[in-house]
Specification:
about 170 residues; alpha+beta; 7 strands; about 35% helix; elongated
Length: about 170
């Protein structure tokens, strides 16, 4: 009886690993929020890495700023036992319109590309925050990739709310 039980568990475990291997490790999340501030006010917060503390929930590991404080080349690097090592860098900055960034964790083992786009509205700005990533062929992270809309989406929603508060005069 015990042999059958453990054989069954082994089949279930192997099946879950095989399914995880065929699940794509790629993911995409997008959230938008309208803000009463003009695009130039919002842009000041998304283009300046030193101001990201006011509206994002940086882990304690993301401590050391690199490059200039704002615009292309601005970023942060970290090396933390819990979060691994990584680099966040602004790769494109178009005044009043958008900021694109790249996050590389563990020397590029996990990469996230992000864009924060600003669209002028009659009474403010629509901010659209989009992130895409690739976890590679890790059988466990294939399952995580399926949950990223919920997991990362909630963090992005909170960040956008804080960005609205920070950038509104």
């Amino acid at each position: 009886m015990a042999v059958k039980f453990f054989s069954f568990l082994a089949v279930v475990f192997i099946s879950l690993l095989l399914i995880g291997l065929i699940l794509p490790g790629t993911w995409a999340v997008e959230r938008s929020l309208e803000m009463p501030a003009v695009p130039e006010q919002v842009f000041a917060y998304v283009n300046d890495v030193s101001l990201w503390d006011a509206w994002t929930d940086w882990p304690e590991a993301a401590g050391e700023r690199i490059g200039p404080s704002r615009g292309v080349g601005a970023g942060r690097s970290w090396d933390d036992p819990e979060f691994g090592d990584g680099v966040f860098t602004i790769v494109e900055s178009v005044a009043g319109e958008r900021v694109r960034y790249r996050v590389e964790v563990e020397d590029g083992a996990m990469i996230t590309e992000g864009t924060i786009a600003l669209d002028r509205l009659e009474d403010g700005t629509r901010v659209t925050w989009r992130e895409t990533g690739d976890f590679g062929w890790n059988p466990i992270l294939g399952y995580v990739a399926r949950a990223m809309d919920r997991l990362q989406g909630r963090e992005m929603e909170l960040g956008l709310e804080r960005l609205r508060e920070a950038s509104t005069p």
